[in-house]
Amino acid sequence: MTLGLSGLRSLVRLIDSLLQPTPLNQQSVAINVPQARADLLDLVAQLLGVLQLAAWGGIGLYLLWRTGIKLRLIGLDGTRKLADSLGALGLAAIIGIPGLGLYFAAWALGLNLAVQPSTLDNQWWMSVALILAAAGNAWAEEVLVVGYLLTRLEQLGWRQYTALVAAAVLRGSYHLYQGFGGFVGNVVMGLVFGFYWQRTKRLWPLVIAHTILDVVAFVGYTMLRGKVSWLP
């Protein structure tokens, strides 16, 4: 009902793109788009999207709590602030730099659509909305795909590496709308993030690192759009 259904919709969008006469790398897809003509209504709509993402993560935490899994058991307590922050910076660097290279390579090879992280106009609230959207994405994805799903698969007796691959493929599936590069890049991210969590049982570094990556992508794109030639 949440990211699983998003994965199926994403697959449909990719198939639709492949059926077009235009090559993938000559098509584009936007992530954060205007949702209303009126400025304030658009802001409200953007914030409602963030609220939905927060609720998705909350549902996962609630279901875990119902079975006795407390926040500290999945690494959402505040006992290791410095270590979690350093871990987040390391994960962001490991994923961010190679991930950008993979995206441009896939796009150049015709395996990916041109991804536009944001097509919002320069409203006064744009940067704040994009930062909140980044945090919402990070929260929903890491809580559900890592904290919830890997915990549940472990309870069901799945082997660690089998569960890790399954969660990573799920993460990649709801990015299929971007093309094959988006799928592969997010599967790799899922493997790295999931492996880190399985070894440390700390979820905050994943949430923070994911937020950093999305903030750089969303806000950075809006700042560079139209000013550099290498951005689609």
From TrEMBL:
Root EC class: hydrolase
Alphabetic keyword roster: Hydrolase, Membrane, Transmembrane, Transmembrane helix
EC code(s) of this entry: 3.4.-.-
GO molecular function: hydrolase activity
Occurrences of domain CAAX prenyl protease 2/Lysostaphin resistance protein A-like (ranges): 124-215
The keyword Cytoplasm is assigned to this record: no
Domain of life: Bacteria
Membrane-spanning ranges: 43-65, 86-109, 176-197, 203-224
Protein name: CPBP family intramembrane glutamic endopeptidase
Annotated organism of origin: Lentzea sokolovensis
